[in-house]
Every structure is written in C-alpha cells, then in structure tokens.
Amino acid sequence: MMRRTFPLRRHRKQPPIAIALVLVGLLPGMAASQKSPPRKEIGRTTIGTPTAVYVEPATVSRTGTIVTAAIRVALVPPLKHPKGELKSSRTLGMYDCAKRTVATKESWYYLDDAGKKEGMHRQVKIPGFGPVSTGSVAGVALDWLCSAK
User: Fold this and answer.
1) pTM of the model
2) CA distances (Å), origin 112, targets 40, 55, 59, 73, 90
3) Does the residue 32 lie in any domain?
C-alpha cells in the first residue's frame, strides 16, 4: 500500500514569523531592563579620597522618619577580590533621620564603574541601625536624604 503524503499547509509556515515578531517586540523592553537606573549626584565624601556619592531617585521611599534608598559610589582605590578589582558599589540602606543612624539591607560590588558586572553581593538578614561618620558615604547620604527639600 502506498503512503499518501500531503503538502505542508500554509498556516504551519506562519508561526516562525509570529514568534519572530513577538521576540522583536520584547527586545526593546529587555534592553531597557539592562540599563542601570538613573543617578543623581548628592555630594562628595570628605573622608579618604573625595568621591562622588549618587542616589537612585526611583528607590527613595519614606516611612515616618526612616528613608530607604539605593546609594552608589565609585571605590577609590578599587578593592582587591578573587574575581578581580571591585570598582563601584550600590548599597540599599535605611536612614533614620530622627536618630541619625543607618542600616544596610543589601549591597552589591561591581567589577566595572558602570555597575553592570557584579563581583560580589551581600544581603543582611537582620539589618541593625548604627552610627554614621560625618563625611562618609553613609553620612553624605543621610544628610541629603534627611534635609528638607
């Protein structure tokens, strides 16, 4: 008995085009998610090498006297690490404006200045508030976040 073969149907050729269109539609969103968030310079450290301190405005939130924000800074000189030199950091912290104390929730250290290649990540299980040195990164952030705007 001879097996009858049927020609491929036209609609079976269309899904690869549909998938390609969906992927092309997703690419701009993927590219946007890989960009680092916008930063705003809020001051410079006065301890050690003067370094610019930046805040990510989209991360700033206030609950009573506590302000939560992500702070970025270049590490000068870079820190030595098994993966390479850590050149910049991003710290998510809580800043208590009433007591003038700071607690770190999470911190990332990057192998590049742009903050794209992660070298190390630390998450604090139970953040504890502690004192701040004037002129340090935390001090500059606390002063800026708690000032009346």
Assistant:
1) 0.72
2) 19, 18, 21, 12, 12
3) no
